[in-house]
């Protein structure tokens, strides 16, 4: 019997049966906007081949005013319909099912023509929306219905009506955004009329044999959000209006509570969906931070939902379901919920991809096949760059030896996994371990590879990584000074008062690590909910604790410093930087920018400010931790070059500046695809 009996059970929707309980949730990939429809089709077809039960596309705008940004994709012309038909045909040929999400952004639409129930600007957009009049509301409904019929014409198996995350339909539901006094505002019955009317008319237009999913905000995570009673009332009305499935939405985009970041516990919000079970008779889907078949199976077997939605895990591995079904779950490339190559890209106007799987959304351009000329390949350094190269090169049939002087693989990933809130990195290292075995990589740990060892290989790849940069501060050789490596890898003793030199990704990680003591809230959901102020929406509107976040008292008194006179953490991930900052602020970490480091003595770190080096100040500290960035480690590469042996240099050994696992893995995979 399968290890995932609930996950792999079919789901009967009446006119159609889904092969399993896995929905690939909607993601904006940016692919449609490239207008390369072959590429769009291949992205979805690859996931269909990988066995997912049903997919939902990225949000399609029903009209110009409802697009997330000007020019956002939608089905506006006969040519659009023909393009989408290419996608649905390819998915169906691959044996999959696909629904199109209709996304009207309302006041979140990033443009001056945005519309909303009331003219109230959102905190995450500079544009104040225009309040719709009765005709305007009718136009929005009718445009959404038209989008649904066009989706049907384009061959989709259904639509998902986006009613959560604070978008247009959600905006009608709560007084936070709906101050109308006509039949669309006032009482909850009035406020919920718009989503209900939309679903009723969509169903009327598409007929009974078409999937209609409604994504319902089950916990708004904003002040004055919906009560649980209202959520249930809406769910029942949406069912009566003709929806086939209810999907879970968690939190508005403007919420100041993280909902999908890596520090959010796995299945953190499944309990919210579970509350709806039994209230409606149509299937209910749960979502957020479900990223392995084990967790998905758990959620279903515990009765939290009838189906699970996973989105980013399908960027990390298109074959998630097929591998689980084949009993090979350990080979599923894990989504570590970092957002670095997916949402951070989306919000920077770049095409989505995946840190773990650079092929995601690049299926037509980055591919590899078995080599016809197997080579002996030596790779030095078993960090993310070396591991990714070894995995793909060996998969292609090259004979790969991977050297590392450490006793374990993972390189810098082993430091990341020590940080509370970054536990997912354990899974990433474990997956690389599996893949080394899977592809019979000759792993030579505890081994310094020198030029003599490497000279006879056909190809040599240097992925030796980085060394900490020396910040050259007077007094830094004192006993009270440590490097981030001593702290994160060596478990060195750190005093109660700490000054951290450097506020990049690692400075923030070290601060997070040192501020915590005891269990990581990411591993203890009750602690995490308390830390961020999440409550049951049955007790408090929107699920936002009126008392605010209640973090555990910080373990140390920490000052985080940088020389740049800008907000600390400004260059961290676009969608996660605010979480790191908020988390440290909750732990009273003092953040100081614009400093000059003058000297370190037994009392702590002396800094001054500005070009004139004014206002000498002592940051009293028992321990000073240096996190001043990194430089390439290229000693092996230099020795090889001296012997005239060509080598490929990748990852941090190539360029240390702004190095992260995303660039390292991408570079490694692309190189391995070519050699
Ligand atoms: P980094 O992000 O480049 O930050 C280096 C820090 O050191 C900066 O705050 C910089 O600020 C400071 N610095 C640079 N030169 C200095 C000098 N000579 N003296 C004193 N301070 C100096 O490097 P990192 O923190 O080592 O991180 C390495 C890479 O790993 C980064 O790309 C990072 O994004 C990635 N990473 C990412 C995450 C994540 O959460 N996404 C976590 C960990 C690491 P000033 O120049 O203003 O002083
Ligand atoms: Fe998951 Fe990170 Fe890949 Fe996004 S980039 S899909 S969050 S692993």
Report on the structure:
With 675 residues, this protein is α/β, with parallel strands linked by helices. It has 3 domains: 11-346, Alpha-Beta Barrel (TIM Barrel), CATH 3.20.20.70; 376-467 and 631-674, Rossmann fold (3-Layer(aba) Sandwich), CATH 3.40.50; 471-516 and 552-628, 3-Layer(bba) Sandwich (FAD/NAD(P)-binding domain). 31% of the residues lie in helices and 17% in strands. An 8-stranded parallel sheet has the order 10-9-8-5-4-3-12-11. Strands 15-14-13-16-27 form a 5-stranded parallel sheet, with helices on one face. It has a 5-stranded parallel sheet with strand order 18-25-19-20-21. Helix 14 runs parallel beside helix 23 (661-674) and helix 19 packs parallel to helix 21 (577-586). The chain is globular, with a radius of gyration of 26 Å. Iron/sulfur cluster (SF4) is lined by residues 312, 315-316, 335-342, 354-356. NADP nicotinamide-adenine-dinucleotide phosphate binds next to helix 19.
